[in-house]
Amino acid sequence: MTVAIKVRSAIERSSWIRRMFEEGAALIAEYGAENVFDFTLGNPSMEPPKAFHRELLRIAEHPYTGMHRYMNNAGYEETRAAIAGRIAAHSGLPVKSSHVVMTCGAGGALNVSLKTMLNPGEEVIILTPFFVEYKFYVDNHGGVTTEVWTDPETFQPDIDAIAATINDNTRALIINSPNNPTGAVYSAETLAALGHMLERKQAELGRSIYVISDEPYARLAFDGNSVPPVFKYIRNAILVTSHSKDLALPGERIGYLAANPAMDDAKLFMEGAIFCNRVLGFVNAPALMQRLVAVLQGESVDVGEYQTKRDILYKHLTRLGFSMVKPGGGFYLFPKSPLADDVEFVRQAQKHNILLVPGAGFGAPGYFRIAYCVETGIIERSLPAWEKLAKDVGL
Ligand code: PLP
């Protein structure tokens, strides 16, 4: 066998994703795409803003020598400066281009950050429910994940529980707001409390503990709110993000990491991150996309559309008796499963052509995830199916 035991085991553990995909494809073949309500993937149905296509055309019509060549591993200076300027304006901190590395998506930024900071066996705290890839990413770089539940009433981080878990082997904490899968947006008060607790713990233990703030949904906050700037509240913070969701470009693999200028060993960390970006094989983020996002920092998809989708589903499902925390952003709902066995509930939903992901996939059995980044028409057509499903499971 030429596949490593560890990889085989990982494939086995995540085989339900493939199974669901195959079953979904079979349903579409039988009933037609318009009659299958696929809420499984966080793949936005929205198109990028018009300004993206305008810039794309402009660059294509005015090619210049060297535009497709290798560059500095950290990325183009103008792109890093545009991003740094935006973060500086938002956080009030002196973020410069030297604090930014362009990466292949937020996934790339997470891997580069983890590789840069982890010694073998060091612990990374992740907050349950979590984005399942975190476990694989931490393992990629020899780290060990420790799961700490968020407050199930709000899905906000439980600061005392995190404090109780931190030990002299803890290197990092990953936070994610707006959250996948819960849609929770962490408040400024929560971030401030987290920042204070971490300063106390770091002084106590005499070691740096980094917060990796994974924010690909940061511009998708609802109800007129915005996501508080992590650098303002947490000193040892690294922001990792992408334009996969806010510009609807997940296939283009364009993201970045940024270090808080006030963080411990910021200069050394940036040197490490630029090196890791290279040796992980990404080398640099896609050149054309870097050119584009440099001038699109003020653009975003219409967040109002996601809010409308949330409102339709949240209103309908709560009326039917489903119980859930109202999301403040992103494009996911994470209701409690009406059946104790969330996998069984997802199977019941499939009988009504509704495709969902069981909470077990996010470390949270007893829940299920709805990714509502689909056409609003699909959501509307799914409403009667939800009604039948609710009856079936005794709501
Ligand atoms: N982090 C979270 C919480 C996500 O939901 C995703 C993608 O769905 C990623 C990171 C990866 O984003 P990217 O496609 O930019 O690598």
Question: Which terms summarize this structure?
Answer:
single chain; 395 residues; alpha/beta; Aspartate Aminotransferase, domain 1; Aspartate Aminotransferase, domain 2; 2 domains; seven-stranded mixed β-sheet; three-stranded antiparallel β-sheet; 14 helices; 13% strand; binds pyridoxal-5'-phosphate
Written account of the structure:
The chain has 395 residues and is α/β, with parallel strands linked by helices. The strands form 3 sheets. A 7-stranded mixed sheet has the order 2-8-7-6-5-3-4, sandwiched between helices. The protein has a 3-stranded antiparallel sheet with strand order 9-12-11, with helices on one face. A two-stranded parallel sheet has the order 1-10. It contains 14 helices and 12 strands. The chain is globular, with a radius of gyration of 21 Å. Strand 6 (210-214), helix 9 (230-233) and strand 7 form a beta-alpha-beta unit. It has 2 domains: 5-48 and 301-392, Alpha-Beta Complex (Aspartate Aminotransferase, domain 1); 51-293, 3-Layer(aba) Sandwich (Aspartate Aminotransferase, domain 2). The longest helix is centred in the middle third of the chain and has 18 residues, at 188-205. The model has no long low-confidence stretch (mean pLDDT 96). The chain binds pyridoxal-5'-phosphate. Pyridoxal-5'-phosphate binds next to helix 5.
Write a concise synopsis of the structure shown.
This protein has 14 helices and twelve strands. By secondary structure, the chain is an alpha/beta fold.
